[in-house]
Every structure is written in C-alpha cells, then in structure tokens.
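All the exercises in this workshop are built on plain-text protein records. A record pairs a protein's sequence with a compact description of its fold. Backbone structure tokens are a discrete shorthand for how the chain folds in space. Once this layout is familiar, the rest of the handout is easier to follow. As an example, a complete record with its sequence and its structure tokens follows.
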Amino acid sequence: MKTNSPILSYIKNQPIEVQDRLMQIRQLVLEQVPNAIECISYSMPAFKLDKLILCFAAFKNHIGIYPTGAGVVEFEKWTNRYQTSKGAIQLPINEALPVDLLIQLIQTRVKQIQHKEKIKHSITCPKGHVFEKSTNCKSCPVCAKNEQHEFFLKQLPAPAIRALKSHQIVTLTDFTRYTESSVASFHGLGPKSMSVILNALKKAKLTFKTPLT
C-alpha cells in the first residue's frame, strides 16, 4: 500500500479519534479497487478510475461519503439507517463503519463506471409527468421542454396570442400541424409576429408542415 498517498497526509492531519475510521475507508476502497487513483478533490480524499468512485471527509459529528448522486440512489435502496442528501451520505462519527454496505457501495460505483450504467428511478412531477433520472435531480424534462416552447408566446402581442390559441396553438410543436402560409393568414398575426415564430421554431429545430404540391 502506498506510503506517500495524499490521502494519508489528509488523514494524519485529522483528529486522532477519527483517523482509524478514515484509514479503514481507504483500505476498503483499495482492497476492492487496487488500481484506484488516490487524490484530493474539492479538498477531500478521493478515489478515481476513469471517473470518480467516491470522496470522503471527516466532520465534527460525522464522516461524509460522496459516491456521486448515482451511488447515493443505490445506497438508499439498501438502508434508511443513515442521513443522505444529493450526492452525500453521513456516517455518525461515534459509530462503527457499516463495512458491508461500504463494500457494496464501492463495488456498485466501479460497476457503474466500467459499464457506464445509469441506474434510473421513476419520478412524478407536480404536474403528473412521469420520467426517469439516474440522480436525485427532480427537474422534469417534460415541463422544461414545455416552458421552452411556451416562452415564445410571451414575445407576441395579445392579438397574435389570441389568434394562435383559437387554433389550439400553445407550444412550438403545435405549429408543425400547419403550413407557414396558413399561419400567416390568421387574423391578428403580422410580419413581426411571424418573425418571432420563425426564430423560435429555428431555435427549437422545428418546422412548419410542408405544403402539398
């Protein structure tokens, strides 16, 4: 085992009462992943392969384990014994380390990295859209897309908005049901409104319906 590791230097500068646990975490990782690269990342001991396996750090009341969001998602499936947050697990400073869980976590992170697995879980947003995420991020892609598509309406004058809504056009995708000439003929849409619509469609990589020849 390396004796000039930056992680060893970190551990030696921590309170004596926590050093054994920190050394144990280092040993567990290196036993499972002998080729792991030891380094300091964000001022914390870290282990990497092609990507980060995990970081860890000592605090006043806990030891923090940071196995990325994907690692935390898996850890939360195995136990609810420990406090977790996005990307972090807190192990009480005055308790023995959950060795078996840590080994399982390390092995899972290695598998995720080597096979580029995305462990997904289903989330339902407040508007009822169901989607899958590989992290704890709860941003709804459906809502985000709709917000992007609906933003163009705010750039149009009231008569143009009323004209579009009267034809059930409320998102950019709705324009794909119409030809450009048919939309331009709507009462209330002038050249400036059409220019806004065309620019918005271009940014969204959408087009009007191709007219029949």
About this structure: The first strand starts at residue 37 and ends at 41.
